[in-house]
TrEMBL record:
Molecular function as annotated in GO: pyridoxal phosphate binding
A Pfam short name: Ala_racemase_N
Record's signal peptide: none
Cofactor(s) it depends on: pyridoxal 5'-phosphate
InterPro entries in the cross-refs: Ala_racemase_N, PLP-binding_barrel, PyrdxlP_homeostasis
Record CDD domains: PLPDE_III_YBL036c_like (cd00635)
Domain Alanine racemase N-terminal: 9-221
Family assignment from sequence similarity: Belongs to the pyridoxal phosphate-binding protein YggS/PROSC family.
Organism for this UniProt entry: Kaistia hirudinis
Protein name: Pyridoxal phosphate homeostasis protein
Coiled coil (residue ranges): none
Function, in words: Pyridoxal 5'-phosphate (PLP)-binding protein, which is involved in PLP homeostasis.
Keywords, sorted A to Z: Pyridoxal phosphate
Modified-residue entries (N6-(pyridoxal phosphate)lysine), positions: K37
Length: 227
């Protein structure tokens, strides 16, 4: 592995561009979210200096401690919440994040809708789908995704932009990415949030519009991520 963050970031960007080209997709159609969870604010500076503007965090509190000063200094930074959201954190999440990838139940949809109206903000929203039907993992079951997206629209007044998944760690990710892409097509959603350090090139081949890459950019994490 390359020894500097700049080199690793540049390598990931190169792999994404190559995967886009191989899939006959336009350059830049798969956008890179640099997943910075567990890394301190200082570690963000070289990534920002290298032009990275999309960052992903999985905990609201950690992001609140890390990002406000950096966002004030670089207003074009986009923050994406990629971890599970509790409804009692909806206020903070809507205040801080430009996108939320983990809408997966009515209670969260309702809490987000209330805050979106109250704060007059429009974060991009993704519905998380549990493509592997793993009991310990967040996300709505694939067969319930279309009805849930419809309820988000009609009952909660939420515009859902796309779907997100985290395939089971022990399985080949391709079939899960294919399923997510098929569901999004059926529902009529344009955005697909899928692919992590180990499988983002595969995700681009299956149509990812956002890939979420942490370790391959920032190095290995000191403690494991929550599911
Ligand atoms: C941590 C995390 C990632 C990034 O994982 P890496 O393997 O470090 O690239 C992507 N998506 C979610 C939801 C995560 O929690």
């Amino acid at each position: 592995m390359s020894d500097s963050l700049e080199a690793r970031l540049s390598a990931v960007r190169g792999h994404i561009a190559a995967a886009e080209a191989a899939a006959h997709r336009p350059k830049g159609s798969a956008r890179l979210i640099a997943v910075s969870k567990t890394f301190p604010a200082e570690a963000m500076e070289p990534a920002i200096a290298a032009g990275q503007r999309l960052f992903g965090e999985n905990r609201v509190q950690e992001a609140q401690a890390k990002w406000p000063a950096l966002v004030a200094a670089h207003p074009d930074i986009e923050l994406h919440l990629i971890g599970p959201l509790q409804s009692n954190k909806a206020r903070e999440a809507v205040a801080l994040f430009d996108a939320i990838h983990t809408v997966d139940r009515d209670k969260i949809a309702g809490a987000l809708a209330e805050e979106i109206t109250r704060q007059d903000k429009r974060p991009k929203l993704f519905v998380q789908v549990n493509t592997g039907l793993e009991p310990q993992k967040a996300g709505i079951a694939p067969r319930e995704a279309a009805a849930f997206v419809e309820r988000c629209r009609t009952e909660h007044g939420l515009a859902i932009g796309g779907l997100m998944c985290i395939p089971p760690a022990a399985e080949a990710p391709g079939p899960h990415f294919a399923l997510l892409a098929k569901l999004a097509g059926e529902i009529g959603l344009a955005e697909l949030s899928m692919g992590m350090s180990g499988d983002y090139e595969t995700a681009v081949a299956f149509g990812a519009t956002y890939v979420r890459v942490g370790g391959a950019i920032f190095g290995s994490r000191a403690y494991p991520p929550s599911a």
